[in-house]
Amino acid sequence: MQPSDHYGDAGARPDSRSYHADLRREARNHFKPSVLDTLFVAEAPPSDDRRYFYFEDVVTQDGLFIELMKFFYGDAFESYVGARTPEKKYQWLARFQADGLWLLDAYDEPMIGAPSSGPRRASWLEDRSDLSERLHNLSRDGYISNDTPIILIKVTVYDALFQELTNHYNVIDKRIPFPGSGQQASFHDLLRDALTER
Question: What is the pTM of this model?
Answer without folding.
Answer: 0.91
